């Protein structure tokens, strides 16, 4: 896929990073140089390369280096705590780590020095360069990439799955190529397009909707280190992007930082996903950008998009629920709504969304038989919705308990377990509460042990060293008791109701 982009537009800018521009040929050369250095350090085909950077050229170069070695790229969220990073590195048996020097000094160094991981090589990058300027020079043709098959793993990306157990989706090169092609077809993207990387590259949307799209089409990828609305609007004015896909939270922030629709005059396709979208928020974004807002629906297990609204087409709204449609199946994808036995239900009937297509993963990393949500190539998403008579798909509820906040996935049990470690906490239950800009807000309901006291602020502070910022509760409510069924099961739906909200 990347070779195709190189052949078509090797001398055109592939990456714009503030004042720096890199052609596809330069990225190709520098990724080969990094791959050569890693190979000399013993990196072998099938090994895992963890990549801990922000949206920098180094991330792109490192992913390509892993693939050229026949290895597997493991994107890492820089916000991870020691506990989270150690789990990822140990679980994936990561062989090497590429990290920004400024990031390594804290959590990563502590984890690596702890000695529990199998990381044998650490490559540190200076953000001011962030381009592997110190990488060894290679003569043309000196590095020979390892041959890869379409079924070989390309990425390990962590997800809670539909069972709630954190695990890595095994995304193959075929999955990546298929999903990038879906984007190309949906948005009619070419090498004349400019893609604004508003989502983090370590997220499936950034990985595929930004980076892989640039590889597939030769479009220019605009990177700006880390999301900040003021910085993003500067990039919009400077680079005139034609394609933007990001969370509602990010888009609203950028709109608020803009001077008006004139800033977005170059945009040809504007998409959002990662959380339910209300008509009111869609109207805000559309009035602020002067562009119609389109919707994507996908999961890590579908390598990003599986359902999308056709570009610029009016989006129907369900009269009963007030929900906006999430779209129609993307090319080469089949969507069914099924009952608990896997039988397709009639139009208008509510059931679980099931997806099948070339972008759907085959399973999880070392999950053994734990692939109950993927049967004969079909993914049972755990999301509840229906299909109307015209074929439009509506999402009524997210996965049973998972929280989607600002595009990030948060599994309540992980947050609950952290809060439960506090000596004053008797019980903790975490749910997602509706939030107009973030989609959902991580909210905890806590009961306190007899004779103990603790405040919401103290519990939030307690979680800081154990949870990434997006996982931490933004609200904590102290309650006398939790609503429970006769069998003692906590009734989460009641916590989301008016009596507790």
Characterization of the model:
This protein is an alpha/beta fold and 501 residues long. Among the domains are: 22-148, Rossmann fold, CATH 3.40.50.980; 403-495, ANL, C-terminal domain (GMP Synthetase, Chain A, domain 3, 2-Layer Sandwich). Helices cover 28% and strands 26% of the residues. It has 14 helices and 25 strands. The protein has helices spanning 2-9, 24-40, 57-68, 82-92, 101-104, 107-113, 173-187, 204-217, 229-239, 248-257, 279-289, 412-420, 456-463, 492-495, and strands at 13-17, 20-23, 48-52, 72-75, 96-100, 121-125, 153-159, 167-172, 194-196, 220-223, 243-246, 269-272, 293-299, 304-308, 325-329, 334-338, 351-356, 374-375, 378-387, 393-397, 403-405, 408-410, 425-435, 439-448, 475-478. The strands form five sheets. Strands 1, 2, 9, 10, 11, 12, 13, 14, 15, 16, 17, 18, 19 and 20 form a 14-stranded mixed sheet that branches. Helix 10 runs parallel beside helix 11. The longest helix is centred in the N-terminal third of the chain and has 17 residues, at 24-40. The radius of gyration is 23 Å and the shape is globular. The mean pLDDT is 89.
Summarize the structure.
With 501 residues, this protein is an alpha/beta fold.
**What is the residue-averaged pLDDT?**
89
Q: Give the CA-CA distance, first to last residue.
A: 49 Å
Shape: globular
Poorly predicted segments: none
């Amino acid at each position: 896929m990347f070779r195709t982009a190189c052949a078509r537009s090797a001398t055109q800018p592939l990456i714009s990073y503030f004042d720096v521009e890199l052609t596809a040929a330069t990225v190709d050369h520098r990724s080969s140089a990094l791959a050569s250095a890693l190979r000399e350090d013993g990196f072998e085909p099938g090994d895992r390369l963890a990549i801990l950077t922000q949206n920098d050229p180094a991330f792109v170069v490192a992913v390509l280096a892993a693939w050229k070695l026949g290895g597997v790229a493991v994107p890492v969220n820089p916000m991870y705590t020691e506990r989270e990073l150690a789990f990822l590195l140990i679980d994936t048996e990561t062989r090497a780590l590429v990290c920004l020097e400024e990031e390594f000094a804290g959590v990563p160094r502590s984890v690596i020095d702890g000695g529990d991981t199998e990381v044998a090589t650490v490559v540190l990058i200076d953000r001011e360069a962030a381009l592997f300027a110190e990488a060894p020079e290679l003569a043309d043709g000196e590095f020979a990439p390892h041959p890869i098959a379409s079924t070989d793993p390309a990425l390990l990306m962590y997800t809670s799955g539909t069972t709630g157990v954190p695990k890595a989706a095994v995304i193959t090169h075929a999955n990546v190529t298929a999903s990038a092609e879906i984007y190309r077809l949906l948005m009619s993207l070419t090498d004349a397009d400019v893609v604004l990387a508003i989502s983090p590259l370590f997220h499936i949307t950034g990985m595929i909707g930004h980076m892989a799209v640039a590889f597939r089409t030769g479009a220019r990828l605009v990177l700006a280190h880390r999301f900040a609305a003021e910085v993003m609007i500067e990039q919009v004015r400077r680079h005139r992007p034609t394609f933007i896909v990001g969370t509602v939270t990010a888009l609203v922030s950028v709109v608020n930082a803009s001077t008006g629709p004139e800033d977005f005059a170059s945009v040809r396709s504007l998409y959002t996903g990662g959380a339910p979208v209300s008509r009111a928020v869609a109207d805000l974004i559309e009035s602020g950008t002067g562009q119609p807002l389109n919707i994507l629906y996908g999961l890590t297990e579908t390598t990003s998009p599986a359902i999308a609204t056709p570009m610029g087409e009016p989006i129907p709204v369900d009269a009963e629920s007030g929900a906006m449609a999430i779209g129609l199946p993307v090319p080469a994808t089949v969507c069914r709504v099924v009952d608990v036995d896997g039988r397709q239900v009639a139009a208008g009937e509510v059931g679980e969304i099931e997806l099948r297509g070339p972008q759907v993963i085959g399973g999880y990393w070392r999950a053994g038989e734990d692939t109950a949500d993927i049967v004969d190539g079909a993914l049972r998403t755990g999301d509840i919705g229906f299909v109307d008579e015209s074929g439009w798909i509506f999402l009524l509820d997210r996965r049973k308990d998972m929280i989607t906040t600002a595009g990030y996935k948060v599994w309540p049990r992980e947050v609950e377990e952290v809060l439960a470690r506090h000596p004053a906490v008797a019980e903790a239950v975490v749910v997602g509460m509706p939030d107009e800009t973030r989609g959902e807000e991580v909210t905890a309901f806590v009961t306190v042990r007899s004779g103990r006291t603790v405040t919401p602020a103290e519990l939030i502070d307690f979680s800081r060293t154990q949870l990434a910022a997006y996982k931490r509760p933004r609200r904590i409510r102290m309650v006398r008791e939790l609503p429970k069924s006769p069998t003692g099961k906590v009734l989460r739906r009641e916590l989301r109701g008016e009596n507790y909200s």
